[in-house]
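Researcher: For the record, we're logging two predictions in this thread. I'll number them. Prediction 1 follows.
Model: Prediction 1, sequence and structure:
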Amino acid sequence: MTPETTTADRSRDVPIHNTIAEPHLIRSLIKDDIYLLGGQVAILCQFAHPALAKGSFKHSSFATRIPQRLRNTARFLNAAVSGNPAEKAAIFSVIHKYHARVKGDDYDANDPELHKWTAATLFFSILIVHEAFFGELSLDQKETMLRESAVFGTSLRMPPDMWPQNLDEFWAYWDHNIQTLQVTDMARKLCGDLLYPLNLPLAMSVSMPLARVVTMNWLPERLAVEYDLRPTLATQVAYQGFVSWTRLMYPFIPQYLRQRQHDMYVEDMKKAVEKISQTGHWAGV
């Protein structure tokens, strides 16, 4: 190996790493569809990293493919958190084939630092949704969820020793990135595509205004300014009303309704695995 070989180069042919902790707590949480509300804030935090924004801008289309991208993301998350070894191997093989093509002079989807940041945004989004609607987790629960969230990075080939060892280390890493990452014009264009997509199914179109309200109120302040998504008085009032109503009514919603979308995505993942076993890809599912 030459001195010029990068971390991304070294990781390209590395197998999936064993993760730090089996994600028992995360698995129990994200069965509820309400955690999907954190998706947009996680993605916008990811796009604050110029390399992630550039890779997405040049190699994907958010404006016209939101439902498919959401399914693909759900396939990865469900495989990482609850998939069996065969399901993980199949789903991750497709993702890594795709990542191998997403690279340029100053970005590479195989860079484990990008995987670390992606995993960090997912931890943040799950935590912020839980604390908004269900109250604060205990310190021990947060530490457990942090260790378990390493699975999002290790499933993308992030070496486990890159993951923060405790909450203090995590928040130091998080705060540094939030204060120093540059939101580029590409990221702002992707933000518009994400929040105002085209050709959505009716059910998703109806939910988009609410998704924008919670995203505005959950984004770290600096990123909200950079994306021009600072909450207004109206969106703050709407957000507080939605949170209060949800906290009151959520316990009365039947479990099968609370987990309906999750169950559909798990079934979709299993269909994708079957298609991969037949064709080597999930195209057409």
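Researcher: Logged. Prediction 2.
Model: Prediction 2, sequence and structure:
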Amino acid sequence: MTDDMVLVTGATGQVGGHAVARLLDEGYRVRVAARRPEQGIAGQAGVDDRVEVVTADLSSDDNWDKAVDGVRYVWHHASPFPLTPPANEDELIVPARDGALRVLAAARTAGVERVVLPSSYAAVGYTVKPDGHYDESDWTDAVGDIPAYHRSKVVAERAAWEDVREHGGPELTVINPTGIFGPQLGPRVSASTGLVRALLTGGMPVVPRMYFGVVDVRDVVDLHLRAMLHPAAAGERFIAVSGAATSLYEMGRVLARHLPRFADRVPATELTDEQVREGARSDPALRDAAVLGGQVPVISNAKARRVLGWQPRPVETAITDTADSLLALGLVPA
């Protein structure tokens, strides 16, 4: 048991909900910052009576002093993630950047020891390198031809690092997860788990040839905890990826082996790179695949393993546990 208080923003999301549960299991006191008190925590019907709730919005300075009062650590998960591209990319970029800076400023004033900022692999590996190898030294080019969400993650993370360099503490550690899968907490389906649901319901009979990293949400939270506590994590970023990159087609094969009764629903065909590029002109859903150009990236998790002793679950486990939870919650017809 510990008396330390951790502030979690974005607890209505998949990672934030798992984060609150893990912190409570570890004996921490938890405070949640939410735009509306009734929003609750992902996976719970209401707010756990062991959790304090403060109303605070990333677009306003109001109440952030109350949110960080007495807090030792902050996990800042809140950031816009729309299911469809915005008409104006500043709708994503401005709140992502300004929200991170607002949280850092409040944490600095309150004497918070360390902020763990979940960024994204979108800030690392969406400027294609010829050798296809990516680690924490890589950055996506924010002025390149990338989707608005990816640009928002680059801009927000770079702004956070610059803010700490210019103004000093709190200590900052950044986690850059690849595609996050694993047990679904409630009916609100994330973008990644939505891919598994689409594969199991026949919603993607043909898929683009696109390879991406996979990580289990429970391992993402475990990496947050290690990054919060380890002295060597201060001032560092860590990629969260379970293992070798996979594709939507390969993911379908994993699901077909795990749930044979769904085998006829998973995709049997991949689009060619040329078809992806042509389709991306009119279909925003194909833009990622077009940007990556069919490359099979080699994404390193060596730093997290070496520095923090992190040991993620296998890729297949993250995918099959996602499917099992979707079925258990009735989010995929049996």
